[in-house]
Design brief:
The structure holds two protein chains of two kinds. By secondary structure, chain A is mainly alpha-helical. Chain A has one domain (about 10-25, about 60-270): MetI-like (MetI-like fold, Orthogonal Bundle). In chain A, about 75% of the residues lie in helices and about 0% in strands. Chain A has helices at about 10-30, 60-100, 100-115, 120-130, 135-145, 145-160, 165-170, 175-210, 225-230, 240-269. Chain A is elongated. Chain A starts with 7 loop residues before the first helix and ends with a helix. By secondary structure, chain B is an alpha+beta fold. Chain B folds into three domains: about 30-60 and about 70-75 and about 205-280 and about 500-524, Periplasmic binding protein-like II (D-Maltodextrin-Binding Protein, domain 2), CATH 3.40.190.10; about 80-200, Dipeptide-binding Protein, domain 1, CATH 3.90.76.10; about 285-495, Dipeptide-binding Protein, domain 3 (Roll), CATH 3.10.105.10. In chain B, about 35% of the residues lie in helices and about 20% in strands. Chain B starts with a helix and ends with a strand. Classes of the chains: A mainly alpha, B alpha+beta. At the A-B interface, helix 8, helix 9 and helix 10 of A face helix 1, helix 9, helix 11 and strand 16 of B.
């Protein structure tokens, strides 16, 4: 009897992420400040008891802004990733199970799309849709499914040749049933691991686009625009850029630990 | 086994962290980078002034250049007949006096005695005639003379006479431009290209070493007409593209001054042990412009409502760090006839803002967009302040930031509703701004606002031909009041011209066009 235990990396990652999510949910409720209310008389104050994270150029409290931006960016990260995950997994299952022309179409499509640099595509899409969340969503819909399709396709193809699949087919199970009941549970964990690490890249993309003025636009707070806001003060008022930047780094670390922990847990089984 | 797993976890975490840090390093990369080049050290050499500038000098042709990297090198070499002082007031320069005939058609300049070019040759009225005629003939002139000039003559060696077909009062201010500097007749026998590669002028400095993608070294003009000047023997324009680098070099004494120090970090230079800041008023006003051809902003009540909703002094405070005046009128204070000190602008009154909107075609508010060029922090902050001000009266503004090229092409195609941009006088005359911002038939169509008020147009045409004095002042006062009331634009703030120098530097004269005079500079 093998004793199963949660890898420490996974536990640490989940704890860190939970703490961050809790913080971004609670801080705006408890804070006396409105994340978008300017108060020029208290602009650019360093961290203090009144403003634990300091204030920005328009005198807005940075603690509540970092938290409010976290709500926006994390929700965006999860929301934007969902559809590509479903589409990519489905495409991977079909391509891996059937092979043949479905495989060829999906491979061709993903090869063609992956040739476009991501940020170039974002710029093009943003040009068409205007800046804002729509651009990020569309671009990720176009590009994001590929990585899931590739991972799942590989895993499915290697399972499809195994005897138990063949016997399931002989016993009269439909393809749909085999795909959903037999294949999906077996490849799902791999897809989830990819999902977690892909989220880090997506978050960085969201933040970078905000930084470049192509993503979330004011007055909605966002870590990227906040980092850009403080850029000119890096040498003299470190807190304006550094604190939202640190939030991005912490989420990145949490997700990386979770991804790695999940990988370890999968190998243990 | 366990160990390698932990390592791999650590590695992945670090990779992810690195990826996340990308966003921050993106922000940081424009701040750091570049290399410190010691060598042109100014300290120890009492007579060299090293000036950090963010762009190299690429051309010294005074007629075709307009950008400051070139203009502020050109004005050290060539000098005009008249110039302007710190407050934007016109002063005689190479001319010891000037006279304008009562009909405004004849301008007579008398040259100073003992004027010499840097090669030792005397300056005569013929040189001035050649310079102005050559400027007029220049097809690629960046700042052409707009006066209707009938003739430029030299009745004698010391007298220059300009005759006009019709009066044009801004001529004197136009002549004060660096582009009307005096060059030797027929380029002293050289070709134009050869001449501007190694120019000869009357200015305090002479080019001695010039790297078009790097530094420019001037030496003192031994024949300069101001006795005993300049006080320094060498002036080095050192290319330091990165602002943080420039600040560090000033602090350590590798440079003696910075041409364009960032306002955000000025306090450390103002309060530094070895550094200080010199300022002057500017001819620039950062401004929100309304496209008055837009369905919403064609309504004067809508424009007045937004102007009342906004608190301009908040904008000034947020973006200028104590180095700007809140603009109340379209003319900055360093331009004669500005009513900055007396005018009552439409500003900062939420009740009146609501009243105005109630009188407009959109009493329940509407949605619109502010267009701005990305990468300008001050503009982005100002736009956010207008956005939240507008929200208070039910007008929902979206901020649309686009790259600078797109920005320019869009506003020039009138493809915007509100934009933020800077307005600048090219020369110290009210007309330079008013004509550009209020003449619907001019090249800029009232600074691309399409604003048109026949009364204002008539007054501004009249002011162009009215001699300087009370009558002209009254015209500009009236125009400024109308523009303030009808709000085709909201002038926000006029930044100071700011130069950072070492504490031991004295005599630097800062000018409202962002240039400086070095002839009185002493180090130590």
């Amino acid at each position: 009897m093998k004793r199963l235990h949660l890898p420490r990396t996974l536990a640490a990652g989940v704890a860190l992420l939970a703490a961050i999510v809790l913080a971004v949910l609670i801080i705006p409720l408890l804070s006396p400040y409105d994340p978008t209310a300017e108060d020029i008389s208290s602009m650019l104050q360093p961290p203090s008891f009144v403003h634990p994270f300091g204030t920005d150029q328009l005198g807005r409290d940075l603690l509540v802004r970092v938290a409010a931006a976290g709500r926006v960016d994390l929700a965006l990260m999860v929301g934007v990733e969902l559809l590509p995950f479903i589409i990519g997994t489905a495409a991977g299952l079909i391509a891996g199970y059937y092979g043949g022309w479905p495989n060829r179409i999906i491979t061709l499509l993903s090869d063609a799309l992956i040739a476009f640099p991501f940020y170039l595509l974002v710029a093009v899409v943003a040009f068409v849709t205007g800046t804002g969340v729509t651009g990020i969503f569309l671009t990720f819909l176009i590009m994001g499914w590929i990585i899931f399709a590739r991972t799942v396709k590989g895993a499915t193809a290697s399972l499809a040749g195994e005897e138990w699949v063949e016997s399931a087919r002989v016993m009269g199970f439909s393809d749909t049933s085999i795909l959903l009941r037999q294949m999906l549970p077996n490849v799902f964990s791999q897809a989830v691991i990819v999902l977690v690490s892909d989220m880090v890249a997506l978050l960085v993309a969201i933040v970078t686009l905000g930084y470049l003025g192509l993503g979330v636009t004011p007055p909605t707070p966002d870590w990227g625009t906040m980092i850009a806001d403080g850029q000119s003060f890096l040498a003299t008022r470190w807190w304006v850029s550094t604190l939202p930047g640190t939030a991005v780094v912490l989420v990145g670390i949490a997700l990386a630990l979770i991804g790695d922990g999940l990988n370890d847990a999968r190998r243990q089984v | 086994m366990k160990k390698t797993r932990t390592f791999s976890a650590l590695r992945t975490a670090l990779t992810a962290a690195t990826a996340a840090v990308l966003a921050i390093s993106l922000a940081a990369c424009s701040q750091t980078g570049g290399s410190t080049t010691a060598g042109t050290s100014a300290s120890g050499d009492q007579t060299t002034f090293t000036y950090a500038r963010s762009a190299a000098v690429t051309s010294l042709n005074l007629w075709t250049e307009i950008t400051s990297n070139n203009a502020f090198a050109i004005d050290k070499i060539f000098e005009p007949l008249v110039s302007f002082d710190k407050d934007g007031k016109i002063i005689d320069w190479l001319a010891k006096s000037h006279k304008i005939s009562d009909d405004g058609l004849t301008y007579t300049f008398t040259l100073r005695d003992g004027l010499k070019f840097s090669n030792g040759k005397n300056v005569t009225a013929e040189d001035a005639v050649f310079s102005i005629e050559q400027h007029q003939a220049e097809k690629d002139a960046a700042l052409p003379l707009t006066a209707d000039i009938a003739s430029v003559t030299a009745p004698d060696e010391k007298t220059v006479e300009i005759k006009l077909n019709s009066p044009y009062t801004p001529l004197l201010a136009e002549l004060a431009n660096f582009s009307n500097g005096i060059v030797p007749k027929d380029f002293g026998g050289k070709s134009e290209a050869d001449f501007f590669a190694n120019p000869v002028g009357t200015g305090p400095f002479v080019v001695s070493k010039w790297d078009k993608s790097g530094d420019l070294t001037f030496t003192k003009n031994e024949n300069y007409w101001q006795q005993g000047k300049p006080g320094i023997t060498k002036l080095v324009y050192k290319l330091v593209e990165d602002g943080t680098q420039a600040v560090n070099q000033l602090k350590t004494g590798q440079v003696d001054g910075i041409e364009d120090p960032a306002l955000e970090n000025l306090d450390e230079l103002e309060n530094g042990n070895d550094t200080k800041v010199e300022t002057a008023g500017s001819w620039v006003t950062h401004t929100f412009f309304f496209n008055t051809a837009d369905e919403h902003f064609s309504d004067v009540h809508v424009r007045r409502a937004l102007a009342y909703a906004l608190n301009r002094s908040d904008v000034t405070k947020a973006v200028s760090f104590g180095h700007a005046d809140t603009a109340k009128t379209v003319l900055p204070k360093a331009i004669e006839y500005s009513t900055q000190d007396s005018i009552e602008p439409v500003d900062n009154d939420l009740d009146k803002a609501k009243e105005e909107l109630a009188q407009s075609k959109y009493p329940d508010g509407f949605d619109a967009k502010i267009l701005l060029a990305s990468g300008n922090n001050a503009y982005s902050q100002a736009a956010q302040l207008l956005q939240s001000a507008a929200a208070k009266i039910g007008v929902k503004l979206e901020i649309e930031s686009v790259d600078i090229a797109t920005f320019r092409s869009r506003f020039k195609a009138f493809d915007y509703q509100i934009m933020i941009n800077s307005a600048q006088a090219d020369y110290p005359d009210a007309d330079s701004i008013i004509d550009f911002q209020a003449d619907p038939d001019g090249f800029s169509k009232s600074y691309w606002t399409s604003y048109s008020n026949p009364e204002v147009t008539e007054e501004l045409k009249k002011a162009q031909v009215t001699p300087d004095g009370d009558e002209r002042a009254a015209l500009y006062e009236k125009i400024q009041q109308t523009l303030a009331d009808e709000v085709p634009y909201i002038p926000l703030y006029s930044p100071q011209i700011v130069k950072a120098v070492r504490k031991n530097v004295t005599g630097l004269e800062v000018l409202p066009n962002n240039s400086v005079r070095f002839q009185d500079v002493k180090i130590g």
